[in-house]
Specification:
- The protein is globular.
- It is mainly beta.
- The protein is built from three helices and 17 strands.
- Bound molecules: 2-oxoglutaric acid (AKG).
- The site of 2-oxoglutaric acid (AKG) has 9 residues, from strand 16 and strand 17.
């Protein structure tokens, strides 16, 4: 079993966020503070029993587990991650071109302290799925122009089965899944605090994306992945 490097932060709830402004084209974030809103700023907790998790069976051995509102106190998690992370741009190959991915990205612990709730979440997910979720990364969608195109995870799409768990904090976004090679898509509206876990053959036989939308509040996807073997 791979050794985990996820790091436990010791910081507590911080001042409330009212608006996140992100300068497009650079990794600079500016948090504008204002009116106090207590909503969502309670101490973060999550449902370690996974009691409200529902499985959506997809064709060809793929599935998605979905738990709405799995993480409570999500506003302070968003705020702390947005503020304390060294967000960076990333590039990917699209056919014969290298293009900038329209969102910011970070890997923990290299790019920031994370949040104290991440390690217990990681550990609960590992216990529940009986697989060590060693790698924690995050994607920041600054607004509706940020997105991620249809894909299956690069290494996992060569594996028979793979798990990818994502906890969303911040604004709502549509998360679409479609069979690899075409077919009608299914949509999940991922809200702040929701947990979605792709499993089975999902990375190999299905593709997923976060499409662009006209308006969206900033959203952070906190992604937990096992250490996938080099052989794939
Ligand atoms: O933002 C999400 O929920 C999905 C992100 C994703 O699919 C990825 O980074 O591979």
């Amino acid at each position: 079993m791979a050794t985990c490097t996820a790091r436990t932060a010791t910081t507590t709830d911080r001042a409330p966020r009212t608006r996140l402004a992100a300068r497009r084209g650079s990794a600079t974030l500016l948090l504008v503070r204002g009116q106090l809103s207590l909503l969502g700023h309670e101490e973060p907790t999550f449902d370690a029993t996974f009691a409200r998790m529902r499985r959506i069976e997809l064709a060809t051995g793929a599935w998605v587990d979905y738990a709405q509102g799995w993480l409570r106190g999500d506003a302070s998690v968003f705020e702390q991650l947005a503020e304390s992370t060294r967000w960076r741009t990333s590039e990917e190959r699209m056919y014969d071109k290298i293009v900038q991915v329209p969102r910011l990205y970070a890997v923990l612990p290299a790019d920031g302290p994370g949040h104290a709730v991440l390690e217990p979440m990681r550990s609960a997910l590992s216990q529940h799925y009986r697989q060590e979720f060693c790698r924690v990364s995050m994607a920041l969608y600054r607004d509706g122009k940020d997105s991620v195109a249809w894909h299956g995870d690069r290494v996992a799409r060569r594996m028979p089965d793979a798990l990818v768990a994502t906890v969303s904090v911040g604004g709502w976004r549509r998360f679409l899944l479609r069979p690899y090679g075409g077919g009608s898509s299914i949509a999940l509206n991922l809200g702040s605090g929701d947990l979605a876990v792709m499993g089975g053959s999902c990375q190999r036989t299905w593709q997923h994306c976060i499409p662009k939308v006209a308006h969206a509040d900033p959203r952070i996807a906190i992604m937990f992945r096992p250490q996938w073997e080099e052989e794939y």
